[in-house]
Fold this protein.
Amino acid sequence: MQSAPYTIYAVQYAQRNTNSSELFVGDSHNTPMKMAYFVWALTNGTQTVVVDLGFTEEVGTRRGRQFLRCPSQGLAMLGIDCTQVEHVILSHFHYDHVGCYALFPNATFYVQDDEMHFYTGRYVRKAAFRHSVEVDDILALVRFNYEGRLVFINGEKEIVPGISVHKVGGHTAGMQIVTVQTKDGRAVVASDASHYYHNFEKNVPFMTHHDLPGMYDGFQRIRELADRPDLILPGHDPLVLERLKPVADGIISMG
C-alpha cells in the first residue's frame, strides 16, 4: 500500500568544535570544523518515525559536547510527543544515537542483528570500540529485548510503508541507513554511514570505523539508494542546516 510522502526533519540538540584531522582519514591539515548532533523525525501527517535518540545532557557534558536542548524539546516544536512515538529506528549503538531511550516509553526500537551481536560480544571492551558507547545504554537495549521492544533486522526491511532500513556496516558492525519516500523522490538519512557531505561526495572515510572497506561500500550504497545526490542527508554536518529549509532554530526540513 502506497503511503503519502514524508517530510524529513533534522533537529539539532548539541554541537562541538573539532578539526578535520580528527574527522577524516588521511587528513593532516587540522582545519577547524564543527560537528552538529541531530535526531530525525519522518512524518506524513498520519505516521511518524523517529531516527536516533541523541545523548543526555549529563553524558554530553562529561564528553565535552555543548548541549543545546533535550531532543524532546525540539521534537515537541514539531508537534511530536515522544511518549506517543511508536517506531524508533536506531542507526547504530554509539552514545550519541541511543542515549535518550527513556523519553520513548511506548516505542519499539528497530536494530540490526549484527549491531547487537557486536556490542554484547567479545571486542567491545577494547578501547577502539569502548569509547564510543555508554554501557548503561547497551544494558537498556538488552532489557528492551527481554521486554519485547526490539525488532531485529538482518539487512533490509520496510518499517512502515515508505520508510525502509538498509544495513551498510562500515562505521559500526550493524550500521543502518534509512530511505524515505518524499514528494521529491527517495531520500537517504545516512546517519553515521556518512557524517559529512565530504565523506560520500569525495569518498573520504570518517576516522571512527569498524570496517574501512565497508565504509567505502556504504558510500556507494547511499548514492545508489537516493534518487538524487541532494536527497542524501549526512549525520553530523552543520551544512545540513544551511542547505535545507529552516523550520525553527536548529530545525530544518526536506520534502
Summary: The first strand starts at residue 7 and ends at 19. The chain has a mean pLDDT of 97.
